[in-house]
Amino acid sequence: MVSGVLGIGGYAVALGPVLAVVAYILAVDLLYENGIGQAVAISVGTWVTSFVILYVAAYFGYSSFQALGVPPGI
């Protein structure tokens, strides 16, 4: 049921991506033993950095915006 959908507060949440994010944060927490707060900060920082790099690459034509999750035609 990992790929299923769970209703939380009226919103449909796909469990697969949520569990992947939780697993990533826990892995970072195990690598850096400074607490869950720093693990979340490191995870958000890496996500923002990769988003910026992918956006700049797509803007200059080295990649596509599909890598960021934007469907074609938008």
Secondary structure layout plus pairing:
Blueprint: E1 5-8, E2 11-14, H1 15-31, H2 36-59
Antiparallel strand pairs: 1-2
Helix pairs in contact: 1-2
Biggest sheet details: 2 strands, antiparallel
What is the tally of beta strands? Answer: 2
Quaternary form: single chain
What's the number of structural domains? 1
In angstroms, what separates the terminal alpha carbons? 32 Å
Stretches with pLDDT under 50, minimum 5 residues: none
Pairing-aware structural class of the strands and helices?
A: mainly alpha
Helicity level, as a percent range? 55-70%
Global mean pLDDT = 78
Question: With helices defined by DSSP (H or I, 4 residues minimum), what is the helix count?
Answer: 2
Task: Characterise the protein shown here.
With 74 residues, the chain is mainly α. The chain has one domain. The protein is built from two helices and two strands, in the order E-E-H-H. The chain has helices at 15-31, 36-59; strands at residues 5-8, 11-14. A two-stranded antiparallel ribbon has the order 1-2. Helix 1 (15-31) crosses helix 2. The longest helix is centred in the middle third of the chain and has 24 residues, at 36-59. It is flat. The termini are far apart. The model has no long low-confidence stretch (mean pLDDT 78). Keywords: Membrane, Transmembrane, Transmembrane helix. The chain crosses the membrane at residues 6-27, 39-62. This is Tripartite tricarboxylate transporter TctB family protein.
